[in-house]
Write a structure and sequence with these properties.
- By secondary structure, the protein is mainly α.
- It has two helices and no strands.
- The protein is elongated and about 60 Å long.
- The protein starts with 14 loop residues before the first helix and ends in a 9-residue tail after the last helix.
- The model has no long low-confidence stretch (mean pLDDT 78).
Length: 72
């Protein structure tokens, strides 16, 4: 059962929609699959971005090309 919308809150009308979207009941099986894949994509891009930054930091530290903060 979705929570009741607060009539005093201007964003209260969206509370039920957010509940349905996050519970997976709004899109059915395909909606749950899309939400799961988008969540996994966020995790993948976070980890891969950290990996790339670590590799750039190691390369910069090994070569000592520049003493600034940013890489070329």
């Amino acid at each position: 059962m979705p929570p009741r919308a607060d009539t005093g809150n201007p964003l209260g009308q969206y509370l039920g929609l957010f509940h349905h979207l996050h519970s997976g009941s709004e899109g059915g099986l395909w909606g749950e699959i899309i939400v799961m894949l988008s969540g996994l994509a966020l995790v993948f891009f976070t980890v891969s971005g950290m990996w790339v930054d670590l590799q750039m930091w190691k390369s910069r530290r090994a070569k000592r090309l520049k003493k600034g903060i940013f890489w070329k």
